[in-house]
Amino acid sequence: MSRLEQRAFVSSYDFLPKGATSFQVPEDAPARDYLFLLLPNLTLLALSSAIEPLRVANRLTGKQLYRWYTTSIQNNTVNCSNGISITPDIALPQNVDDRYTFVCGGT
Fold it and tell me: Cβ neighbours of residue 93 under 8 Å, at least 6 residues apart?
């Protein structure tokens, strides 16, 4: 199972019963892409704090409003300040186009 398939599986898991919480979004718009450039020794708390609201918004609306991808400068695994390693989802794009890009670093 690829990393993207794993993410889809985890995000589709029903932690709350349907109807317990929801938010209707009246229009269908294309998903907004976010790119997270991971630097060595990044703070995992900052990364997860940025991604979680996007995931929760998708969950509450039942739509894919947001997509996110991780990347690194050399497309190598990046070690966080707490020792956790993250393998990037995609190679660093030459042109970022319509993506919102965040640089995630640390000490």
Answer: 35, 71, 99
Q: What's this model's pTM, rounded to 2 decimal places?
A: 0.74
Contacting residues for 37 by C-beta, under 8 A, at least 6 apart: 71, 72, 73, 92, 101, 102, 103, 104
Note the pLDDT tens digit of each residue in 48-94.
999 999 999 999 888 899 999 999 998 899 999 999 999 999 998 88
Return all residues near 70 (Cβ < 8 A) that are at least 6 apart.
Answer: 35, 36, 38, 86, 88, 89, 90
